[in-house]
């Protein structure tokens, strides 16, 4: 299997070679052999000792091309068959990027306590769109560019989640 | 003296409610908890001797609902109320209400609270008591135009502070008049929401300052003691993140000098019970009094670890009319303690609040480690309240031992489901300026700590042997596991292990 | 002095392995764990920097397998081995093997261990060093007839002790010759199984005695310090259950006197590193030396809490050739500490071992509480090893505060799936003689503590408001829940709550 | 429902009366009303606040006549319709008692390291039958009466559980 991990530049090749007599797995990664002892295995949780070091991996998300894991409680994203998935990712992110230029979204969850603009208003970069209250703090969500408000997606008093769109620019 | 207090209502939630419940249990007092709709599954409800429903989730209708709380206190027949920190802890109206109903408020009298809560009145008294104060505006400002005028005189940058704030809330920095006008509106809205009033004042912003505070206790017989200092310079937007005692810049002489000033400060307002005198310290070593926090502080465990004194139990005994059982010279500063506030905020993402279910958590423990927290596996971090989920406190015979224990404990601390400030503290514990004690309230910005944290994470994630290889191994295991399970629905471990997986 | 030790193999398991891993992490040293087939899921495997498989579950093939452990130490390239307590910690052959392979054994030299391990040789040396010893037999006995003869001379009751035992294991009481003969066989079998040798000796059994021991450290430069006493009188079948410091009977003068005797004792055997001199103290206040435990003790945290010294880190620094960094007069006994050994044994049923999975557990925490344990939710308590699952240690500014904190922490400690000694300790913490410090090694029998525990449980279970009524409520809820679920398979909470359940 | 709890002498009568307006349950136990707020409810775990005090109950065993619960982490046994179940229990325990007189069983789990007697041997009360090793301790299992060994149920090296029968007397 070809694997690419986050910002780690190299692409790695790994496969399962077989078992030792004591029942450990032999893995070959980039032409070097490693021993792996399985401690516990399940659909979304793996505990194993790899080269004499314990690791715990939880599967956060799994698709045919991507695997998001919490390895020893820290998130890592792995791409399988990475050449293909890189192509897919590039094409998605370019459209995604274009879309996101028009949407103003909240990076935090919270309750909308005031709305500073109305539909049709012209706004400048940095202008406050709405003010949220979250964990006793008040935080303004600002426009990332100049533009005209095409639509407002929230109401006063409404609770919103992280990444929810609050307004759309024309 | 016979004890007047046999039961205590705790007008709070979270870790501090649990802290007070534990103190009550030690003393054999009955603890009465209150809870909002959001908190039915909270740990303080489970651990208290009894628990009463106080109202809906919103603080104004629950933990700030004075009349309802007083109703419960009377129904439950308690002798005293402990307000914790935040909520009603510095509300002189509530203290008054307690006094009126003959229920002991564990804290200062409403009169003293009125003085400490009004920063301007307090400043005047301090000047009379020869307690040095920060240069700044002389009165409360309700009007943005007046604020702008004063700021222009004092010179930018200035701080905009709520007269009823505390603990860093309601404090905003303005670098120019434009910012001042914007922030004034925000700050007054916040202040109104939290305290019902919008009184603000303006103060010159001192640069590269340290925040050093003294823990104080004063009994009803007029005995005042200081329990040494805490340095709380590591802050973000004027919210304390890390506190420690002793302060790296403190000497024995300076401690005695400022300690005596701090005692004068609380004597000047006829203070009762535990409180804190906060000072700013400039790079030249000058101390300026800024305010008295008329409550138990979040960071009180730091002082408990270096003095061996249980502040909550001492509060109860003072409220009971007893005299402080030690003299100033009996106190010894033993070792070094550090506290990290584990907030439900994402340090990689502008400290955005992070709320939700915590399906699993592992609290660190072992030599020199103390945790005060409301977390348990399966608990929920609510967006309705403060982001503080846990206080991790380490003790060592010296600063370096305390720091290393903190570093280990941060590694052991697992909180699933939410983002926390733990990664930030891991970076700080290994950071050169922190190790050398070179602290200031702009520490995070000055030394680009957030950037360092991000770089460290990247480096850690690129570690070939510890991260990259086990990650590949995980991918191989998972892919094989899926294959095997597709072939047979049994898929037990044994089946799988000896399934002839030779390629 | 440059550090020789950069990595340590921990030849142990359970809580002590984790304790040593934490010390390594603090010092920035690499920790190497070993594990048997039974321990693949144990916490020390998860927390160590690396972990090597050592063999099957049985101790003789794993944690006592010297050659295999040495093989791993060499393969892993460690500089030092920490033996913990039990297993190979007092095995002079293993210490020798380390010396031969140029791996630092963190403990005394094999020569000193040979002397301390052989109680008879040790006794002789102590007599020379003017250390008062217990009256009893003068040599090791391999033969039951000789044992019977000596016992007859000394007069019953006598104690039968393994010369290689320690920590109470391998000690048996015989009240008459019949018992002596029976117990002799058992004891020699046990001793053979655990230490490979069966050498026993006979000692007159002193009644109503206290067990008081002194923690000692000695470095390679000949500096010896005592770190005050621990009283460990509360025992069951010569196994310590509760340890504390200070001892309730200790005065400053007596502490200095016996402390100096204890120092002479370790000097006499040219001791190295941390060790303990155990004494018996009779009701007249006479102290009799009984033995030196040439290892870190289970109860070392008690001393850590009242001195502020990290004994494991100090052990490593001494093993590294460093001098002890404090003088005798620098040490101050600060406050009071108590340790309860949480054993997987059923105190309601003759302390029968209780093993199996622990699906869930809640470790206590908060002010003054320390836990050293290998428990975690989902772990397994194995029947192959020691029954000690956790050490709960409390600190207070005085004995009473420490005791009250312990009582609370015992209430908070939940270990599901197995029986433990927690209920016994809950009874003891409220027991009059314990509170007054009236302790002796027969404390449990003398004051019928097991009976008291059983009575307390019965009383608690009969409490109408807190037990009987909520139990009835549970029965009603459960019966209603079953009914509702029989009607509809959905049975969600909301459905159920508003399901018109009017009767 | 009629309920009897462990050694508590009184028999109690309880029923669910209904709901308060705030959604709490009203229970009537022995003619007194009590309020109960359900926090969490499941097949084998109930969390509730009863008369303003939190309780957690786990169902350990449940039959039509008996309920074994861990209430606030401490075991309690409740008998429903207690008159009937008392009769059942008495008749069972009398036969059970007679049987148990003939069996020697281990009260602890462990590994059999030696067997002191053989089939057909005469033993006296207090004689060791087998020696077990458990948690590094050696414990002898002794006969509770004089008698002759009819059968041995364990072998050397065998691991046994609590309450396993090791030998049967004639």
How would you concisely characterize the structure shown here?
The complex is a heterotetramer, with two copies of chain A (170 residues) and two copies of chain B (503 residues). With 170 residues, chain A is mostly beta strands. Chain A has an eight-stranded antiparallel β-barrel with strand order 1-2-3-4-5-6-7-8. Chain A has a four-stranded antiparallel β-sheet with strand order 9-16-14-11, with no helix packed on it.
Could you describe the 3D structure shown?
With 170 residues, chain A is mostly beta strands. Chain A folds into two domains: 91 residues, no CATH class; 67 residues, OB fold (Dihydrolipoamide Acetyltransferase, E2P) (Beta Barrel), CATH 2.40.50. Chain A is 11% helix and 55% strand. Chain A is built from one helix and 16 strands. An eight-stranded antiparallel beta barrel of chain A has the order 1-2-3-4-5-6-7-8. A four-stranded antiparallel beta sheet of chain A has the order 9-16-14-11, with no helix packed on it. The longest helix of chain A has 19 residues. Chain A is elongated and about 70 Å long. Chain B folds into three domains: 100 residues, Rossmann fold, CATH 3.40.50; 70 residues, ATP-grasp fold, A domain (Dna Ligase, domain 1); 245 residues, D-amino Acid Aminotransferase, Chain A, domain 1 (2-Layer Sandwich), CATH 3.30.470. By secondary structure, chain B is an alpha+beta fold. In chain B, strand 12 and strand 13 form a beta hairpin. Chain B contains 18 helices and 22 strands. Chain B starts with 6 loop residues before the first strand and ends in a 6-residue tail after the last helix. The radius of gyration of chain B is 25 Å and the shape is globular. Chain B has an eight-stranded antiparallel beta sheet, sandwiched between helices. Classes of the chains: A mainly beta (170), B alpha+beta (503). Chains in contact: A-B, A-C, B-C, B-D, C-D. Chains A and B meet through strand 2, strand 4, strand 5, strand 6 and strand 7 of A and helix 8, strand 16, helix 16, helix 17 and helix 18 of B.
